[in-house]
Amino acid sequence: MAKLYKYSIDLLILITVIISTIFFFNFNKGLELSDESYLLLISMYPNDIIGRANNSGVIGNILLQLADNNLYFFRILGGLLLIISSFALINPISNFLKNKLYIKKFCK
């Protein structure tokens, strides 16, 4: 477990960088991995949703207004928000791996 922990955070950072690089090189080429049309619809009309479960439409509306209703810049802002949030989670994940998953009999 200790040997795996040494490389797990570096591996997590490497995977994040590789996925984000692939994402940024292909996001304007028609690569569709999500329900972007639904996201655009709830971002344009966040107050018209009946019985909403989360505030993704409100957050999308703020990003859409920051991008001045430009789809290209809206995708860039969304991708940057995704990358920033994934890097913000690296430290809590490493603390969890180090403190909670540390088992003495598996570590030598």
Q: What are the key terms here?
A:
108 residues; 68% helix
Our Rg estimate from Cα atoms comes to 19 Å
Overall residue-averaged pLDDT value: 79
State the share of residues found in helices, binned by percent: 55-70%
The shape is globular
Class by SSE composition? mainly alpha
Strand content: under 5%
Q: Report low-confidence residues grouped into runs of 5 or more.
A: none
Determine the number of helices (DSSP H or I, runs of at least 4 residues): 5
Any overview of this molecule?
The chain has 108 residues and is an all-alpha fold. The protein has one domain. The chain is built from five helices and no strands. The chain is globular. The chain starts with a helix and ends in a 9-residue tail after the last helix. The model has no long low-confidence stretch (mean pLDDT 79).
Summarize the structure.
Helix 1 (2-26) runs antiparallel to helix 4 (71-88), helix 2 (36-44) packs across helix 3 and helix 3 packs across helix 4. It contains 5 helices and no strands. It has helices spanning 2-26, 36-44, 56-66, 71-88, 90-99.
Secondary structure: elements and pairs:
Blueprint: H1 2-26, H2 36-44, H3 56-66, H4 71-88, H5 90-99
Helix pairs in contact: 1-4, 1-5, 2-3, 3-4
